[in-house]
Write a structure and sequence with these properties.
Strand order of the largest sheet: 1-2-6-3-5-4
Structural class: alpha+beta
CATH superfamily of the largest domain: Metalloenzyme, LuxS/M16 peptidase-like
Helix content: 40-55%
Distance between the termini: 45 Å
Shape: globular
């Protein structure tokens, strides 16, 4: 069971089956605090942290990580950021000493920050070759528009050219404060060890600062809109269709989750049967519901050949309309309950997964018993609740369609496939 101190800022899930420890240093604010036109500043900061401290060079840090048999990675999203380390148990103490230095005393050398910014810029440009990433990126930007969820957490090629050491240091000072950092671990570690490391590390960070309300509620967009990411010579498309979903605190969140499972959440769900099994238009077809502090996206994903894209979109829109108007059946609900209830065992089968239940409860402001009562809440959902939630949350007339395709060849057929289309926006695939 996860050890939690409500008044402290550390969490631990001991498990001594294997001599491995996962350590997490997490900030409770994320990239939504990046200054305007400085998107990617926190991501740059995180990547630059291991490039040197007051007492260690980048080369020394990399050599020590290799010698200790460890791994260290970073990630950031609009609401949080994280350093994640995995280390062999016998090398835990020297690794934690180094990790504490990285978190509390980064040097952020000018030349290292500049090099990291160039690396990130190149990586962002490389992702333009991944059509699914392109489609997902532009879907979120259009769905959330000016909301923090629509901002690119990694930054853009243009913002990477603007960012400097001062931006990275500013992000570190905003994010790595003792009132904003959580330290957690799972695996072959004793609670007292993590508590001591947390106390040492947090004690070296800056004092508390005024809290920032970083997340307004996103606004739903009315009408059907097409965003066409124009890329030359596309014989296959990537398509996202969706709108806003729910938060875990909404009374109908579990009911909507159940409806999504039936519609596109399993290999035998409606989307997969109709689009892949019956018509062979797309090897995969699914839908998902994001879970965040405020309403995240509900979306469908398919990737048909360009010649089938219009037909695929038209079918998806008809399926969504049918889902809302006719609802799901008792048989479908029974299957979804069985699937979600039985598969939940795979959400608790490792120490890290159990630890993240506690962390998500805090980071996403979930109900305290959100995970403990999960299976019971699944079984308690009624058919009326599912169908009422689908009607309340999904408006078939208000959907965003984002497609990566060649505009000159496919714009007309795509627009024709979307009845009552309110707008079309064509975006070059290599635009920031």
């Amino acid at each position: 069971m996860t050890s939690i101190r409500p008044t402290a800022r550390w969490y631990v899930e001991p498990c001594h089956d294997l001599p491995i420890v996962d350590v997490y240093v997490i900030t409770e604010t994320g990239t939504s605090l990046d200054p305007k036109h400085r998107e990617g500043a926190l991501h740059l900061c995180l990547r630059a942290l291991r490039r040197g401290t007051r007492n260690r060079t980048a080369h020394e840090i990399d050599a020590l990580i290799d010698r200790l048999g460890a791994e260290l990675s970073t990630s950031a999203d609009p609401t949080s950021s994280m350093l994640h380390a995995t280390v062999i148990r016998r090398n835990l103490d020297p690794f934690l000493d180094m990790l504490g230095d990285i978190v509390a005393e980064p040097a952020l050398p000018f030349y290292e920050v500049a090099q990291v910014a160039r690396e990130i810029r190149a990586e962002i440009i490389d992702t333009r070759d991944d059509d699914r990433t392109l489609a997902g990126r532009h879907f979120r930007r259009s769905l959330f528009e000016a909301h923090p969820f629509g901002r690119p957490s990694q930054g853009t090629p243009r913002s990477m050219e603007r960012l400097s050491r001062a931006d990275a240091e500013g992000s570190w000072r905003r994010s790595f404060r003792r009132d904003n950092v959580i330290i957690a671990a799972a695996g072959d570690i004793r609670p007292a060890e993590l508590e001591a490391f947390a106390a040492r590390t947090l004690g070296r960070l800056g004092a508390a600062a005024p809290r920032v309300d970083e997340l307004p509620e996103p606004a739903a967009r009315k009408g059907r809109h097409l965003v066409l990411v124009d890329k030359p010579a596309r014989t296959q498309t990537q398509i996202y269709v969706g709108a806003l979903g729910t938060t875990a605190r909404d009374r109908d969140h579990m009911a909507f989750t159940m409806g999504n499972t039936i519609f596109g959440g399993t290999f035998t769900a409606r989307l997969m049967r109709e689009i892949r099994s019956k018509r062979g238009w797309s090897y995969g077809a699914s839908s998902r519901l994001g879970r965040e502090r405020v309403r995240d996206a509900w979306s469908m994903w398919t990737f048909p050949a360009a010649a089938d894209a219009g037909k695929c979109i038209a079918l998806q829109l008809k399926m969504v309309t049918k889902l809302v108007e006719q609802g799901v059946s008792a048989r479908e609900l029974s299957f979804a309950k069985s699937y979600l209830g039985r598969s939940y065992a795979f959400e608790t089968d490792t120490a890290s997964k159990r630890l993240w239940h506690a962390l998500d409860t805090r980071l996403l402001d979930l109900p305290q018993r959100y995970f403990k009562d999960y299976v019971d809440r699944v079984q308690a959902v009624t058919l009326d609740e599912v169908n009422d939630s689908l009607r309340r949350r999904i408006r078939p007339e208000n959907l965003l369609v984002t497609v990566v395709a060649t505009a000159a060849e496919h714009r007309g057929p795509l627009e024709k496939a979307i009845p009552d289309l309110a707008s079309t926006r064509v975006v070059p695939f290599d635009a920031d």
